[in-house]
Amino acid sequence: MLTLDDLLIIQGDFRLSAEFSLPTGSAVAVLGPSGAGKSTLLSVIGGFFAPRSGRVLWQGNDITDVAPAKRPAAHLFQDNNLFPHMTAAQNIALGIKPNLRLSVEDKRAVQDAFEATGLSGLGDRSPSQLSGGQQSRVALARVLVQRHPLVLLDEPFSALGPAMRKEMTTLAREVGAKTGATMLMVSHDLADAQAFADHVVWVADGVAHAPRTWAQVEADPPTGYRDYVGH
Ligand SMILES: Nc1ncnc2c1ncn2[C@@H]1O[C@H](COP(=O)(O)OP(=O)(O)OP(=O)(O)O)[C@@H](O)[C@H]1O
């Protein structure tokens, strides 16, 4: 379980509070207006930004002061962060061993990630020799090989067209379901968010609200939700 305990985030004039838990294995859409603090919330969970007060707990352990690389979290952001001078296979392998000295088992994990993301046969290409969708697959495969139980996705596929975005969102969800990962995805696309998530965290007016199901949100929408989704 991921728990945000009495969390207060301050960034300049911006304030955000959060107080909730997410069950292990849940897939959560983080929705809210631009500038509401969705990315900031993921940064705090990932350890890239420290909260002013409160705690982040994973399975009951306080990880508030743990460095990003030591957290149980993998992250995927919009720009994919692929290294241009490395092949697709090397970019994925970096997720396991930054020095690229792979054991037989590591190599098998890379191969599995290739197959799970539909990249078979493309391992020797550099990112510039891949389409945008294929680059997204490499970035997702790198997240997968890390086998972290917590996956943070910040508008990871927003540079892709609608069909490809849907495909990648579904793929991320399927793989998460297989590995039992707890996943949070920031998205501005309601259809993508609904295809991906079973719960919604609504972020607005300085608060990241406790997760609710789509049915709960539809039945009793938070302030600003209807305007945001446009219906
Ligand atoms: N380095 C910073 N210093 C001060 N304020 C910042 C900094 N970075 C972001 N902010 C402010 O923090 C707030 C939250 O930003 P954040 O990027 O988390 O919002 P968001 O909900 O992810 O927005 P979007 O949907 O547009 O990506 C915004 O008001 C932003 O202006």
UniProtKB/TrEMBL annotation:
UniProt-listed SUPFAM superfamilies: P-loop containing nucleoside triphosphate hydrolases (SSF52540)
Keyword Translocase: yes
Keyword Phosphoprotein: no
GO molecular function: ATP binding; ATP hydrolysis activity
Top-level taxon: Bacteria
Keywords: ATP-binding, Cell inner membrane, Cell membrane, Membrane, Nucleotide-binding, Translocase, Transport
InterPro entries: AAA+_ATPase, ABC_SmlMolc_Importer, ABC_transporter-like_ATP-bd, ABC_transporter-like_CS, P-loop_NTPase
Record-given protein name: Thiamin ABC transporter, ATPase component / Thiamine transport ATP-binding protein thiQ
Organism of provenance: Celeribacter marinus
UniProt lineage: Bacteria, Pseudomonadati, Pseudomonadota, Alphaproteobacteria, Rhodobacterales
